[in-house]
């Protein structure tokens, strides 16, 4: 069987060599077209990678991530612009924690019916969120956020006492309406 295989390989090689002698004149043109298509495909793949990266960055804009030891605020993008959020106080409460947040309305409009998804939980020794045990819920504020001002709110977050509280995430920010001065 091995002898038959060798014979087929020798015959195929001889055929290819004979064909090369009378090379088709279209081959250089086809090779150039293939090279152009490969270059275009690489360019499109690079564009796709950049677009996906930009989309991931835009997603991060829509999330404020806060830790208890963090000073200052984090910004979160929503359809009207940006809000700032700072984590001011964490106290024990029932089976979890009560936190006070300051929300800064950077817009010139009063924001009515602010709603957001709040996530919270513990972190590992490296400070990485334990997402598997994290909790989350939707919150909706009754009070309006005054334009260009801070608004303080308190939230009860169950399941994570202050000693284990490692992070708070604010995302999916929306609103019911706006108010403008006349």
Structure described in brief:
By secondary structure, the protein is of the alpha+beta class.
Would you kindly provide a written description of the structure presented here, covering whatever features stand out?
This protein has 182 residues and is of the alpha+beta class. The protein folds into two domains: 25-60; 62-179, Sandwich (Immunoglobulin-like), CATH 2.60.40. It is 30% helix and 37% strand. It is built from two helices and ten strands; from the N terminus they run ααββββββββββ. It has helices at 2-21, 27-61, and strands at 63-66, 74-78, 81-93, 96-105, 110-112, 115-121, 135-140, 150-158, 167-174, 177-179. The strands form three sheets. A four-stranded antiparallel beta sheet has the order 1-9-6-7. A four-stranded antiparallel beta sheet has the order 2-3-4-8, with no helix packed on it. It has a two-stranded antiparallel sheet with strand order 5-10. The chain is elongated. The chain starts with a helix and ends with a strand. Residues 1-12 have low confidence and may be disordered.
Report strand %.
35-45%
Strand arrangement, largest sheet?
1-9-6-7
Question: What is the CATH homologous superfamily assignment of the largest domain?
Answer: Lipoprotein YajI-like
Report the radius of gyration as a whole number of Å: 30 Å
Count of the separate structural domains: 2
